[in-house]
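Help wanted!
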Amino acid sequence: MTTTAGASAALLVLADGRFPAGGHAHSGGVEAAVRAGRLDDAAALERFCRGRLHTCGLVAAGLAAAAATGHDPLALDEAADARTPSPALRATARKLGRQMMRAARAAWPSAALDDLAAARPRGAHQPVVLGVAAASAGLGPPDAARAAAHESVSGPATAAVRLLGLDPFEATAVLARLAPEVDAVTAHALRRAERVAAEGTDALPAASAPLLDILAEHHAAWPVRLFAS
Amino acid sequence: MHLDHPETYPQRHAPALSAPDPRPDGRRRALRVGFGGPVGSGKTATVAALCRLLRDELSIGVVTNDIYTREDAEFLLRHAVLPPERISAVETGACPHTAIRDDISANLEAIEDLEEAVGPLDLVLVESGGDNLTATFSRGLVDAQAFVIDVAGGDKIPRKGGPGVSTADLLVVNKTDLAPLVGADLEVMARDAKAQRGDLPVVFTSLAQADGIAPVATWVRTRLAAWTAAA
Ligand SMILES: Nc1nc2c(ncn2[C@@H]2O[C@H](COP(=O)(O)OP(=O)(O)O)[C@@H](O)[C@H]2O)c(=O)[nH]1
Ligand SMILES: [Mg+2]
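Answered by r_m:
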């Protein structure tokens, strides 16, 4: 896919934490990890984010890259379901996908987004929508994958600042230290996405994070919580 | 200056952003009214009283934005001001002001889901969890907004101003029954509010009294009549 002039700046819009697609209300498992006593400082946040990046982040980046390549988003949506055993996390992914769809259609209207919205009115998995949105913005698979990988750690870092009163400079330094790994995960996801044309969606990464799945199920059952997930 | 948009902008599909207005049946979509203001000023009590008063004449839905996920929604459910399927709680990640102003996507979805489940609705009341004096609703989310403060918060609040106090379509000064107890001077509050707001309306309420909601209900009815007439 060719990138058009201005496309790299579009990535900044898409990956901006203020992009109005619902992410601010989600902690990516941080709230549950904090309550479970597993996360209480910047070092623990870094370990948490690293784990999330190489599991959920890698899977999301693969899906986003494949969607941005133009592969059938509905097949990718099924592949995302197959890679998301936790019902709570499936619901979250579709909710965020629906919100991303609204923002993306406002920002970069396209037939591809309209078609996916019509086929999945309750929301497709967020990384799939992200990939289609990236393509609509004139971005290619690398940018889509990078945005997905980045988001897998930036959301949790922001949530940790709010939940723990963590020093925001420390949290940002965590993200900066993880940046090379975000790039590596992006590259890995891209290599897998390139195989989808020949091998189908089974070629996409399917790393899992069982503890995140379990934490998400617990979290969804709490009567009182600050974050939606 | 370089104008580089020879073709017209791609047509925006209104339903992608918000509910279509008018609806496919030709009626206007529900009027959306936001209620913001500091914690404890009486927003939930106002929403509850409005529901009790108006529910027999209007089809109403309520969306709450809590700091702690479902507190306000549960109060409304417990007091059965509306059937449960008409009340929806948006989870805000500890930041109601973000969910009502900066990223309204979850609220728009909650409204659309209510409309789909129990619509057509005439009126949607959106409550923001008490947050701070600067929190206002996005114009993309609500058609009109009321800012609720109370006399117990101190009679200085109108003077301090802030976007809620000075720009909301209605300023509600609630709990007037407590004014003598907390030494709040209602005349001072009225004068300061006038200075901040010019001609924008201000009402004083006491929800502790029977029909204390009347001034707010009158305002809502007027807004609704104007909304419907503009179809
Ligand atoms: N005395 C008095 N109490 C009120 C009035 N309105 C609300 N309250 C009480 O103030 C408390 C906070 O009200 P609530 O509606 O939950 O505030 P919110 O945080 O703005 O939603 C509750 O205990 C209400 O019963 C009023 O007009 N007079
Ligand atoms: Mg309340």
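OP: Thanks! One thing I noticed: Chain B is about 35% helix and 15% strand.
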